[in-house]
Amino acid sequence: MKIKTKTALLCAAATLAAAGTAHAQGAETSGPYISAGYNYLDFDEEVGGSADVHGLTARAGWQFARFFAVESDITFGIDDGEFDFDGDEDDLDFDDNDDGFFDDVISGPGDLGLDYLVGAYGRFILPVSDRFDVSARAGYAFAEIDSTVATLGGNELVFGGSDDGPAFGASAAYDFTENLSLRADYTHYEFGDANAESFGLNLEVKFGG
Q1: What value, to the nearest 5°, has the Cα angle with vertex 51 and ends 45 and 57?
Q2: If you write DSSP's letter for every residue of 7-66 in order, what string do you get?
Q3: 3-class DSSP assignment, residue 191
């Protein structure tokens, strides 16, 4: 009888321990999170050129379960990227040297500036170990971009404005603690008049409960 009683007590203790562990894991893997960090972006405009821009990103999200979260982030450009513009008057419908013809080449140095880029995503998370996971995300993004070109004819051309389109990418995160992690992201943006590749490194704080 004593042996059976001890066995029952041990089983009950093991069950309670397992339930406590499961509850703790559930708390760690659900709830809100925020992050901030650096972002490098490579823009390729349809009318204009390719330019590298540096930015600062802030992000907020909510993890509903171990494998799924939703999040939104915003990136502000902190400097303009330089590029070499190469086009022609006919494509731009612009007479750069006022000679009455639209068959001259328009070229010159340009600057691309990112006012802001904001996106919303669904995120699928795959845990690799207790401290390391990888994830994939997809969503939609909106950007405000401005490009300025100084032409050989002494004129200044301004391209850009608002643009939007689908965005998707992947990330990897390493947990220093249950609430603090370092996350690296790659995101591809398919805008109407420009495409962009983004590489970010963010410090993330989780508020599981």
Answers
A1: 100
A2: HHHHHHHHHHHHHHHHHHHHHHTSEEEEEEEEEEEEEEESSS-EEEEEEEEEEEEEEEET
A3: coil
**Tens of pLDDT along the chain (209 residues)?**
444 434 443 444 444 344 344 333 443 568 999 999 999 999 887 655 678 899 999 999 999 988 999 999 999 999 887 776 666 555 565 555 566 555 556 666 777 788 999 999 999 999 999 899 999 999 999 999 887 777 766 676 777 678 899 999 999 999 999 899 999 999 999 988 778 999 999 999 999 75
> For residues 59 and 38, is the Cβ–Cβ distance under 8 A?
no
Q: How many CA atoms lie within 13 A of 62 on its CB side?
A: 2
Amino acid at 46: E
